[in-house]
User: Fold this.
Amino acid sequence: MINRTPALLLAALLSLGAPVAASAAPATASPQVEQIRPDPQAPQVGSGPHRYQFVLRDTVSAAPAALRPFALSHTAFDLPFVAAEKDVYQGITDAQGRTPVFAFEQAPPAQGWVLLERFGSGPNGERMRLQAGDGEGIGAMAYELVVCGKTPRLYRGVTTADGDTAYVATSSIVNLLLFIDADSTAAGGDKTAGRIEADDGQTALRRCRPDAADPN
Assistant:
């Protein structure tokens, strides 16, 4: 698992008119998962007569997220082809934003699929969720996730309609910081989520290790 520190929420969030919280997402399904008719020519994971395929969409443009790392899980069903404790399949979408075809001997429940963008890789992982005081997820919110591992890394994204961030996967237990900034450019213009900017490495280092990164 990822060791979570308290989320850092800037004062700009007060304009939402309700208390805002960030926490590890509970085991609830996302209604935003887009299932399609399985392509018989697509790569297949698992075996069995029950076959499923999904499309991952960019949280900014809503276009199919081509060649994008993703994480797939189910809130009420163990994926038989995943050995890690987290039971999350990690892959990369094709040129049309599609996942592989997933095949099962037993049909998973229709509700419960969770498909998210993925940052990093490894057996440990977590998704975070932004929610208002009434428990409703806060969608379309620009955020920055900072992974404070041996080499700090930064991920810029936009929450899903349910308020979920990307799924962050790591090879070891690390601290995960979540920043929300009304001035963030993550949702600006026609740029996709998850992009990398030139100074992201230094920004992540300053946030994870402020004493080491600040010569003063």
The chain has two helices and 15 strands. Residues 200-208 form the longest helix (9 residues).
